[in-house]
Amino acid sequence: MNGLVKTAQRVMQNYVKNASITCALVSRSQAPVKRDFTRGIWHMSCSSRLGGSTATNILHNHSNTCSCGCGLKALHTKGERELVEFLTEEIVAERKAQKLKTLPTEVEGFQVKGDGAEVVLTKQLKDEIVKITFNVNHTVDSEDFGEGEVQTEKQEFTEMRSKPQFEVDLVRGDTTLGFTCSFLQDPPAAGDEYNDIFGIDEVTLYKGEWSEKVYAVAGDVLDGYLYDLLMNLLEEKGVSNEFVQKLSDFSTAYEHSAYIAMLEGISQFTIGKK
Q1: Is the four-CA dihedral 184, 186, 187, 191 of positive or negative sign?
Q2: Among 169, 190, 236, 266, which is least packed, fewest CB within 10 Å?
Q3: What is the chain's mean pLDDT, rounded?
Q4: What average pLDDT does range 65-77 have in this prediction?
Q5: Highest mean pLDDT among 8-12, 64-68, 185-189, 202-206
Q6: Helix-strand-coil percent breakdown of the chain, rounded to 5?
Q7: Cα angle 67-68-70, degrees, rounded to a multiple of 5
């Protein structure tokens, strides 16, 4: 009789716990989604998963490797177990959402070299080198819907894109003409004479290595005609609107790949693998 009472109490406790978890997850899903791909998709699918027999198996299916029931070696806390469960599903979902499984080694004639969060694109011209440098950290944001566009009910996430600030260096011998460029916040209107999707933030010219002593001028104080001529110069060197759009495509894929690698690293760290 005592066994039946204990079983009934355990069932009631699991029911209350699962109900509270489901309510918390539903509340979270109503918050604004900060990112596309599948970050947060686990929260929407987890309520039904936790409400069924799967959750009971996860919590009560004790393994031979860990007495706490996590099923993984060296995992002994509830927080660690739940984190690894989430990361396992999140990594699978993120990989399914990847648009590029393999990152290209060339973008429009520019050779690609990645080092952590930093990316360098280089192209050798006749008498100079064009080098583009950018960092993907904190560059991802959602694509806003245009005027008159409506998000459909099936579209759970807005598309996320990486739009980094980037440096363009035109190197001739020991002299560098450098540009700091960034994506424009407001896209050009249809029929607009100026349809640039990026702009010049800063221009500088120096010999040897750059330092804080090098003079630079902001793009918004340049003479308007001079600014247009410099934009034309960048286009002649291969840095056009079309190229910058493809740079954003590559940066988006590169950042997503780095995010998945970080999730895998956190999972291995939590499990205890080096």
Answers
A1: negative
A2: 190
A3: 76
A4: 55
A5: 202-206
A6: 40, 20, 40
A7: 110
Contact (Cβ atoms closer than 8 angstroms) between residue 62 and residue 56 = no
With CA atoms as reference, report the closest residue to 265 among 76, 90, 93, 67. 90
Concatenated DSSP letters of 226-269 = HHHHHHHHHHHTT--HHHHHHHHHHHHHHHHHHHHHHHHHHHHH
Which residue carries 């002649």 as its tokens?
Answer: 236
> For 122-155, how does the pLDDT look when each residue is reduced to its tens digit (9 = 90+)?
999 989 999 999 999 999 986 654 445 554 544 4
Give the CA distances from residue 46 to residues 17, 25, 79, 238, in Å, rounded to whole numbers and listed in that order.
14, 8, 16, 47
Express each pLDDT in 149-162 by its tens digit: 554 544 455 678 99
Other CB atoms within 10 A of residue 185 CB = 8
103 Cβ contact partners less than 8 Å away, ≥ 6 residues apart: 112, 114, 250, 253, 254, 257
Segment 221-266, tens digit of pLDDT: 999 999 999 999 999 999 999 999 999 999 999 999 999 999 999 9
Distance CA 182, CA 118 (A): 16
Burial class (CB in 10 A: 0-12, 13-18, 19+), 154: exposed
Show Cβ contacts of residue 230 under 8 Å, excluding neighbours closer than 6 positions: 179, 200, 203, 222
CA–CA dist 254, 233 (Å, integer):
28
The helix or strand, by DSSP H or E, that contains position 190, with its residue range, turns out to be: none
Q: What is the DSSP letter of 220?
A: G
Per the document, the length of the chain is 274
